[in-house]
Design goal:
Blueprint (H helix, E strand, L loop, with lengths): L4 H8 L7 H16 L4 H15 L2 H14 L6 H14 L3 H14 L6 H15 L2 H8 L4 H14 L1 H11 L8 H13 L6 H10 L3 H13 L6 H10 L3 H12 L6 H8 L5 H12 L6 H12 L3 H13 L3 H13 L3 H14 L2 H13 L3 H13 L3 H13 L3 H13 L3 H13 L1
Helix pairs in contact: 1-11, 2-3, 3-4, 4-5, 5-6, 5-7, 6-7, 7-8, 7-9, 8-9, 9-10, 9-11, 10-11, 11-13, 12-13, 13-15, 14-15, 14-16, 15-17, 16-17, 17-19, 18-19, 19-20, 19-21, 20-21, 20-22, 21-22, 21-23, 22-23, 23-25, 24-25
Length: 430
């Protein structure tokens, strides 16, 4: 079972002894060293400390062992024992690391390193099959140690760990936010279907919006299709727009498997902002050209202008030739002039040969002069040579003086050297 240490290191502060947590412990170690006088003990401790920073674990082990042997009365022996254990752990020498921590805890019960030592011991307990240490840690009042113990319990006894995590997340419980966030992260990383109902319950009912969003994010991280229906329900039923959006994003994380649910949201009576985001997520699903047909079906009956715009933008963004064809059909045949205009603009934004060819065909077939002007503007935005050629043709031969002037203006705005040549030749002729 994979446990996401990086996620928990942020929560555990110093308890998991890696990444940011190790950095904080190193900061504490640095402050101790800087406060020392430049004695032989301080020099030895600093040298050992530098090896920790460099990740030279075997050398650090030897230096800290020598420090403890040569300066047994020094005030930093507890710190040295902790970093000796850490060095041993990094080398996979778990029994020796546990022995160093046990000595620290027994001989230095008032040390500032005590909590770090107990947490590190709890973290290593699954490797040593030390269930007693884990059980003791689970009953701790110190959140750092308790959360480290819960992490270890997820490795040693997942079922019992889920039960404890569920209790921590119970509505109205007294657990701290640190414990609740840690329990959420561990449930998500357990990759267990049994965790899903607990996460859904937190996402639906917890009074803390931040925890609700974290539960939703956790559901998005679980690679099981059974989370899709609960996430869709959260999107459609939540009265909090931020929660609905978070659930939609988590739903979209499942990509192709989420298509059916994203379509339901897009077609629903959810807030326009949520429907628009669902459409946008649909456009990001690659490799399924039938999504174009879904978008067109929605467009045929959609009345909301913003949703219409999102549907056309989704067609524009969809990386498939079928999308270009659909936009061309829409620009040519839609009874809604505004939709035709938007489809023309979307074709221009696709910036490929097929799109420019479609625009040229549309211009030749179009009767509405306003739409012909929109097509000219779309051609003017293109960098394709065929677009400049069509603009030149319109400027020379179109029966509409207004459209000829428009084409000339667009040619004048072009940075293409051929545009300048064309204008110079026209001036010579006239």
């Amino acid at each position: 079972m994979k446990i996401a240490l990086l996620t928990l290191q942020v929560l555990l502060i110093a308890a998991l002894h890696g990444g940011a947590a190790a950095g904080q412990s190193l900061d504490k170690l640095n402050r101790f060293v800087q406060a020392q006088s430049p004695s032989a003990a301080a020099t030895a401790f600093r040298e050992a400390r530098d090896l920790i920073k460099d990740g030279a674990w075997e050398k650090a082990e030897a230096r800290f062992n020598r420090f403890i042997a040569e300066f047994p009365q020094d005030r930093e022996v507890a710190a040295a024992l902790y970093w000796l254990a850490f060095s041993l752990k990094q080398q996979g020498k778990f029994p020796a690391a546990d022995a160093a921590l046990t000595r620290l805890i027994a001989q230095y019960p008032t040390s500032t390193w005590l909590t770090d030592a107990r947490a590190l011991r709890v973290e290593m307990a699954p490797r040593l099959k030390n269930s007693q240490v884990i059980e003791q840690g689970v009953t701790e009042t110190n959140d750092e140690i308790k959360l480290a113990a819960l992490q270890s319990l997820f490795e040693a006894s997942p079922e019992r760990a889920r039960a404890i995590a569920t209790d921590i997340l119970k509505a109205g419980g007294s657990s701290s936010r640190l414990m609740k966030e840690g329990a959420l992260a561990l449930l998500a990383d357990s990759e267990s279907k049994e965790a899903i109902p607990v996460l859904v319950q937190v996402a639906r009912t917890d009074t803390d919006p931040r925890l609700r969003r974290k539960a939703i994010d956790a559901l998005g991280d679980i690679e099981d299709d059974s989370v899709l229906e609960p996430l869709k329900t959260l999107v459609l039923q939540s009265t909090d727009l931020s929660i609905a959006r978070a659930a939609l994003n988590a739903l979209a994380d499942h990509e192709g498997a989420a298509r059916k649910f994203l379509l339901e949201v897009a077609r629903s009576n959810a807030p326009v902002e949520v429907r628009a985001e669902a459409i946008d997520e649909l456009a990001d699903i690659e490799g399924d050209p039938s999504i174009v047909d879904d978008l067109l079906q929605m467009l045929a009956t959609e009345k909301d202008a913003r949703v219409q715009r999102e549907l056309i933008e989704a067609l524009e963004d969809f990386e498939h030739p079928r999308a270009s064809t659909a936009l061309t059909e829409l620009a040519r045949n839609s009874p809604n002039v505004e939709l035709r205009r938007r489809a023309i603009e979307a074709l221009a934004d696709r910036e490929d040969d097929a799109a420019v060819a479609s625009l040229i065909q549309l211009y030749d077939a179009e009767k509405d002069e306003r739409l012909k002007e929109v097509i000219l503007e779309a051609l003017g935005e293109s960098e394709q040579k065929s677009a400049l050629t069509k603009l030149s043709e319109v400027a020379l031969r179109d029966s509409s003086l207004r459209l000829r002037k428009k084409a000339l203006t667009l040619i004048g705005e072009s940075e293409d050297p051929d545009a300048i040549k064309f204008l110079e030749e026209m001036l010579k002729k006239n």
